[in-house]
Predict the structure.
Amino acid sequence: MEHITETATAKAPAERFTGDVYLNPIEAPSDPSRLASALVRFTPGARTNWHSHAKGQVLYITDGVGLVGTRDGHVARVSAGETVKCPAGEEHWHGATDTTLLAHIAMVVGDESGDGTTWLEPVTDEQYTAALATVGR
């Protein structure tokens, strides 16, 4: 058994996120496991870039209110205690609403090259505003 009492909080890289986002790693992929997980905290208006995962992603919302959007225009409003499963290869984004914080545990099963995430372009302010309008504030 390994008992980890704390992990350092790091600011998420600006090339993958809009706004202020903070990460606390939980697990990094290492043989034989390929699980990667982190506690991710978004300030109001902060969000990921568009991205996909080779083997999918599970998000467990721990605090606040946020959005998860897909390329086909589907947007889910999420809050504490809810889980979202993003299928393998689906381009999506997630983040806080414009007025609330969001925290979630992000979990992925990596592939041979790492965590299996493909990072894409930022979600535009227009796309974000449209997503907010879709689910209501």
Summary: Residues 71 and 107 are 20 Å apart (CA to CA).
